[in-house]
Fold this protein.
Amino acid sequence: MHKEGFNTRILQKKLQGEAAQHQQKLSSVIFGLFNEPDFYSVFYPIFKRPPDYTEIYLIPDYCLIRKRDSAYKIEFGEVEVSDKPRGYTEEKQAKYEQVAKDGNTYHKWWAYHAGQLGLPMCSIDNFCFSVAWRIL
């Protein structure tokens, strides 16, 4: 992928997921993202629970960076099967909302990844992300 011009500096070698079927669906979704005109990079973050950040709190299936000209957008993605237990997506959405409220998401997490991706830091007032749910 690097030879084709994709930014691969922080691609993880192993995809996250509980089962091989989930990994296949996730791979299919991610490879489809490569063809989108605003695709810039994808990586696999892990968020830890504040205030001590020792316990894993949230593992998105991927983090997609979309870029057009000098503007970029952060999009976390969740690839799920339709038979998840009741309340599963609501619980995960609540975790994303907590991540959004945590100042370290901008000051530490995004500062690190923006540097790795060669992207300029936006102001904290302009920092945001979205979550794309793909139910397969």
Remarks:
- The longest strand covers residues 71-80.
- Residues 2-135 form one domain.
- The beta strands are 39-43, 47-48, 56-58, 62-68, 71-80, 130-135.
- The radius of gyration is 15 Å.
